[in-house]
Write the structure tokens for this entry.
Amino acid sequence: MIEIRDLVKVYRGRRGTVRANDGITLHVGPGEVFGLLGHNGAGKTTLLSQVVGLLRPTGGSIHLDGCDLVARPALARSLCSLQQQAQVPMVGITPRAAVELTGRIRGGGRREVVRRGAALAAALDIERWYDTPGEKLSGGVLRLVSFAMAAVEPGRVVMLDEPSNDVDPVRRRLLWQEVRRLADEGTAVLLVTHAVAEAERVVDRLAVLDRGRVVAEATPSALKGGADADLRVELVLPPGRPAPVLPPCVHDAHHSGPRLVARAPADAADAVGHWLVGQQRTGAVEEWHLGALSLEDVYVRLVGEDADRAGSEEVHRAALVR
Amino acid sequence: MRHWCVSYGLLLRWQVIRLAAVLPVVLVVQAMMAVGIVVGFAFLVPALDPQTALYLSTGAPTVTLLTVGLVIVPQMVAQAKLEGRFDVERALPVPRLALLAADLTLWLLAVLPGVALGLLTAVLRFDVALRPGPLVVPAVLLVAVTATAVGYALAHLLRPVLAVLASQVLVFSVLLFSPVNFPAERLPDWLAAVHDVLPVQYMAQAVRESLTAPLGGVAWTPYAVLAAWCLAGLAVTGAAMARRR
């Protein structure tokens, strides 16, 4: 379906150049939810903007079923639907008008967009605000409305840039169900999100971007290392107590307040479990968890905890606003 | 073509819904401005001869139409850029010039009542005899589309702050240094020569003659010059709107 090859985007500014995308190669098939993870400024939004024809790649290619989307941006806009990261200003417009008009503009029939819009509003549990002017809606509801605008007439590819921002936990689940439903109907979904733990449940495959490059690409379970992966050891220490001396097989320990998170090999599960029970009995540990690594653990290991990157995000915004 | 027309209709509907609350205010302000230009400029000239009265009366609609294209539309685009709406609209599968046409239609409809009221004020205030003919339609459209094409190109090519500034400089130049409300003979030779190339004096002439049906007949040169400027403006604007950074 969508083939991105060696995609390069360089922003040139007064303060030098930034390689926001630096040789990205990805393939997303029909019916697949493909996650894009990465720090702010890793190049995720830049990638989506090039697919939909808002930005011109500096190098590389983007093809959809063999059609060159870089050469045909109008076709890209018609085949790809984008929920942008920025909130859609909806002053004076009700969700119903926004969703139905967007659906019509994207080529949907009148009855079809009315039906699909209402179904989306019901599925996302925003029906009670469907006829309320946008200025009276909360940020989370507006976010769900802009998802519905992208999903009502999705085309071949739907790209969602942080769709769950500001959305409450219950409606987030509904949102992920609808994302899954879109894929099940045959649409390819490219999902940018920082909600790593939630993304794990909805994506089929994902790529981790760091400084414009793909540093990992696999299914969530393959990224976590499969059955032989390390285990996650988490201790909660009593207030004021120092951390106990860890067994030699427990490594990569990180403190965060009273919490200590570390890793242990899978074949040491029994030994570590016994040690944890013992520690809790002596009062050295208040609470503990031993389980599979989360995607978030793997993600943090891949990109590091240094959030202070020479990000492309600000440069990207400046390029679009100009 | 069908895709173009459907897109235009839907975009226009979107804009009407979006701006329904402010349109009545715009309508009133534009009407006040159109009347204000007729009445206010008359204070600058102590003794109004028939020619001056004619220029002020028919210059007001031209200035109002230019304001739509050179000020209102670029300011709306600049605001859309700052709000993030600009990219949402750009990502829609619609022809670029359909976006321009929808914006233009909306604002044109918002100012036309003011234009009519301004003309009525002129007739009552200066006793000017107006004989509007069918050429009013192409004249108004050519002026509005040409000005909007220029305004849109500015707004797309410049940063929002610069676009707003440029639009204000342009409208200031039109009001004070262009032969719209007065004959070109009053300008210094060099400025008159500049206006021989620019579209503004042809806009004023086309609107004036379409409203007064002069005895010597209507000159076609303004229409030809405006059509050329209009096409060139739309070509540049279309390219600016399609430009990917």
About this structure: Chain A has two domains: 2-224, 230-292. Chain A has eleven helices and 14 strands. The first strand of chain A starts at residue 2 and ends at 13.
